[in-house]
């Protein structure tokens, strides 16, 4: 009992960031919370399988991210089966929400994988090692992908007008 | 020394220790383009952090302790379902067994009436048959009259058994009849016809007798004899009648 309370305490500490990541990925709080619940259930039932007890956050992010990718793949497959066109609408979009920043507008135009990477580094502050684990790639691959993502973001930001054109009424 | 790609990103993300940071800064002084690029990356990262760090409201549903309880409840209900299923199956098996036992108690084994008829009519001091004849055609006509679409009576002549007579029987579910055959040694085989009962093709030993039986479309047929040669003859004849 004491052990499970300890586990719950550790999970509780990561929970807000896990939920924020999920909400950002899903753009829908109900889907996001379902994703978090599924992640926690898996973490609780597979607690003994953590490779590095210190890297709980990376482990949880990894579970959540894989579940997210699975569900997205499934959704794509289903929409293909239904003959719907893949409009790329599953990609997170910050448009309309925080359109004030040129960086954010450019960010929303990046491919989903680059967005995920930059989000995890810049917003969630995951270490490169944690990212390598989460994405299941060598750390060198993480670094080169990060370079490409940062260059792409820069390029898109520079292409776009610095500020939205506002009509000033005199 | 030239900073690695990882060093540069760690510089952008503020993850270098002071010594390493100084080394990178020194290297960047010699490469102003690179320095400008990294500075821009740094600004982008800040923008993302500022724009995307949302506060998420608490959701009590996601408390780990609560999820743990839910999981346990789900597991329990699964175990309960499985247990209920096992209980149902066990109950069904026991009830089935008991019903079977009860049926065995109240229902006689298949074709008991045929065996009983054989015992009554095949002994030397037998009751008199309703029709006493050795003529197969006459017997067939008698049977056909009382049992429409009855099967052909078996011809056991090649085996040395000849019909001696037929007896009509009153059964609970209608009329039955028994044709008796004998050979020269006085050995007897009976051909028994009764209204159809749903019994599968089979045989059953009743003390010294062997009942072999099966069902056609309208009637159930049995051939009763002592075991041995007579039973083998009866078995072959029954196969022809069904």
Structure keywords:
heterodimer, A: 170 residues, mainly alpha, Rna Polymerase Sigma Factor, Chain: A, Arc Repressor Mutant, subunit A, 2 domains, 68% helix, B: 242 residues, alpha+beta, Protein Transport Mog1p, Chain A, 3 domains, 7 helices
Describe the fold and architecture.
The complex is a heterodimer of chains A (170) and B (242). By secondary structure, chain A is mostly helical. Chain A is built from 7 helices and no strands. Chain A folds into 2 domains: 1-84, RNA polymerase sigma factor, region 2, helix turn helix motif (Rna Polymerase Sigma Factor, Chain: A, Orthogonal Bundle), CATH 1.10.1740; 92-161, Winged helix-like DNA-binding domain superfamily/Winged helix DNA-binding domain (Arc Repressor Mutant, subunit A), CATH 1.10.10. The longest helix of chain A is centred in the middle third of the chain and has 26 residues, at 56-81. Chain B is α+β, with helices and mostly antiparallel strands and 242 residues long. Chain B has 3 domains: 5-52; 60-106; 112-241, Protein Transport Mog1p, Chain A. Chain B has a 6-stranded antiparallel β-sheet with strand order 1-2-3-6-5-4, sandwiched between helices. The mean pLDDT of chain B is 87. Classes of the chains: A mainly alpha (170), B alpha+beta (242). At the A-B interface, helix 1, helix 2, helix 4, helix 5 and helix 7 of A face helix 1, helix 3 and helix 4 of B.
């Amino acid at each position: 009992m004491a052990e499970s309370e300890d586990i719950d305490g550790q999970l509780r500490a990561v929970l807000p960031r896990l939920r924020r990541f999920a909400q950002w990925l899903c753009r829908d709080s109900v889907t996001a919370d379902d994703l978090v619940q599924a992640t926690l259930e898996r973490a609780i039932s597979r607690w003994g399988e953590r490779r590095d007890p210190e890297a709980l956050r990376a482990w949880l992010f990894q579970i959540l991210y894989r579940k997210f990718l699975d569900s997205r793949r499934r959704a794509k497959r289903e929409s293909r089966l239904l003959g719907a066109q893949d409009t790329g609408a599953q990609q997170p979009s910050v448009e309309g929400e925080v359109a004030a920043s040129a960086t954010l507008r450019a960010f929303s135009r990046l491919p989903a994988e680059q967005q995920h990477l930059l989000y995890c580094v810049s917003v969630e502050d995951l270490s490169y090692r944690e990212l390598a684990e989460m994405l299941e790639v060598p750390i060198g691959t993480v670094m080169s992908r990060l370079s490409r993502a940062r260059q792409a973001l820069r390029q898109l930001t520079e292409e776009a007008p610095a500020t939205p054109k506002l009509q000033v009424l005199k | 020394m030239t900073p690695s790609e990882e060093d540069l990103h760690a510089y952008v993300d503020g993850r270098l220790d002071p010594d390493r940071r100084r080394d990178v800064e020194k290297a960047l002084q010699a490469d102003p383009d690179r320095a400008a690029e990294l500075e821009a990356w740094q600004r982008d990262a800040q923008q993302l952090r500022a724009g995307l760090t949302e506060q998420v409201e608490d959701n009590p549903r996601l408390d780990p302790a609560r999820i743990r309880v839910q999981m346990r409840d789900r597991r329990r209900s699964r175990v309960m379902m499985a247990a209920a299923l096992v209980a149902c199956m066990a109950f069904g098996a026991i009830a089935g067994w008991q019903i079977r036992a009860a049926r065995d108690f109240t229902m006689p084994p298949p074709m008991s009436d045929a065996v009983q008829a054989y015992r009554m009519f095949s002994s030397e001091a037998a009751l008199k048959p309703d029709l006493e004849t050795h003529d197969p055609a006459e017997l067939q006509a008698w049977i056909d009259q009382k049992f429409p679409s009855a099967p052909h009576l078996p011809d056991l002549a090649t085996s040395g058994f000849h019909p001696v007579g037929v007896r009509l029987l009153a059964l609970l579910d209608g009329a039955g009849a028994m044709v008796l055959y004998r050979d020269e040694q006085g050995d007897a085989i009976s051909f028994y016809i009764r209204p159809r009962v749903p019994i599968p093709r089979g045989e059953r030993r009743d003390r010294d007798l062997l009942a072999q039986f099966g069902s056609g479309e309208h009637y159930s047929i049995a051939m009763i004899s002592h075991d041995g040669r007579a039973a083998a003859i009866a078995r072959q004849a029954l196969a022809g009648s069904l």
